[in-house]
Amino acid sequence: MAKVRRAEEQLEKKRRRDARERVLGAVQQSMPKGRRYGVILADPEWKFLTRSELGMDRSAANHYPVSSTETIAARDVESIAARDSILGLWATGAMIEDALTVMRAWGFSYKSQIVWTKPGMGSGYWFRECHELLLIGTRGSMPAPAMGTQWRSVRDAPRGTHSQKPDWQYELFEEFFPHLRKIELNARRARPGWDRWGLESPLAESEHGTGSAA
């Protein structure tokens, strides 16, 4: 009997949460001053200083232009963020402090993280890193996932090309926030339902996908 009651309570909480997220999406769609986003996904071009020739060979700078943490933090991402919004910010283990600095500069408060584990040995100084972190931050009043629907905090996925992230990064936000407007910063491929911005971004279908977030 108690199990049935708990299941009914969880179902009611999920219903209220889904209704709140739907209303939030409708409000953001009607904002008059340009586009504001309830979901912002970012994979910044972090500048990580390597300490060996082997490290330089694997450096991100060999694959695309990189920027200092100060440059990334100075982007006016806050101007495209809805009053109530969520940020997914990719970082490696060595860049956590930098990522948290950027998150705060963009107007978000850190909440949690999800770990992407990759096959193979990886590289690193202290450990052979086989994972990356998707840090989650929010601003305003964002509804958390309904109880019982949360994902596990560790997700396996194969490696792609350099810096390519797994498809579950989109699926996560699409599942929890289907009604909110979404944008990917530093996008390297198109995704239906997402606006996109960045040097390597595919040509967008609208004017909102190719300009600077600043």
TrEMBL record:
<keyword id="KW-0489">Methyltransferase</keyword>
<dbReference type="Pfam" id="PF05063">
    <property type="entry name" value="MT-A70"/>
</dbReference>
<dbReference type="GO" id="GO:0032259">
    <property type="term" value="P:methylation"/>
</dbReference>
<protein>
    <recommendedName>
        <fullName>Methyltransferase</fullName>
    </recommendedName>
</protein>
<dbReference type="InterPro" id="IPR007757">
    <property type="entry name" value="MT-A70-like"/>
</dbReference>
<dbReference type="GO" id="GO:0008168">
    <property type="term" value="F:methyltransferase activity"/>
</dbReference>
<comment type="similarity">
    <text>Belongs to the MT-A70-like family.</text>
</comment>
<keyword id="KW-0949">S-adenosyl-L-methionine</keyword>
<keyword id="KW-0808">Transferase</keyword>
<dbReference type="InterPro" id="IPR029063">
    <property type="entry name" value="SAM-dependent_MTases_sf"/>
</dbReference>
